[in-house]
Amino acid sequence: MILPLFYVDDIIKRALAEDINYVDVASDYLIPENQRDKAYLVAKEDGVLCGLEIAMRVFTLLDGTFSFTLHFKDGDAVKKGDIIAEYEGKTVFLLKGERTALNLLQQLSGVATATAKAVKGVEGTNASIADTRKTVPTLRALQKYAVTCGGGKNHRFNLSDAAMLKDNHIDAGGGIENAVKKLREKIGHTVKIEVETRNLDEVYQALDAGADIIMLDNMSVGEMKEAVALVGGRALTEASGGITPENVREIAETGVDIISLGAITHSFKALDISMKMVK
User: Fold this and answer.
1) DSSP character for 185?
2) Residue 196 falls in the annotated catalytic set
């Protein structure tokens, strides 16, 4: 896992505080404090894993005696019935951490699985799959990590990473040429400018203004092909808007460099994974 522990731990602690609150009225009153048990995680459907170490970290923060063995790693494909991990610890903490661990693991594996499907859909083309900022608030870095586990690439993480002129920026900033010119006068040399375009005329304008990346927003397949030919490699082209794993191949075959999908982080299906106690 490439994410720093202090960031992951902060998310886990807030999630545990939300779920446990003060006391677990089932586990705390039912299970003896020193009882120990073994448990395992099992895949209930095929998919791509992400968040295994994060899930294990949930139990580690609750129980200093917790130990585990992972049979897969983030980015691995699993089949229904696969035993993903086995672990042992104080029973009360296994029960308290179960839901938080599974929520994170299932959500992130769902993102990785959706991304992998889109990546497979563009195999053999010039296009790469990227995410967007349409992420669950406070979970962006986790979701973007999951995208990389599914074989995708990360778009900007936040508004400081790059200057993206969307339609509202352009309309409020006096048009594409004026907006790009103003930005060039103020931004540093490491900052790229991306311009969202809605038609071929705006693609012309973005090229003339010297945009580094030109987004082809909600254009038809035919318009995208024309736009890619027009740009001719003078800027990167990015297709966005209304793209799903089902139509991603057709979009990729227009020749665009990047395909950004909000769906992989906001409309994915969580991967079905269960925790079972060893009887």
Assistant:
1) T
2) yes
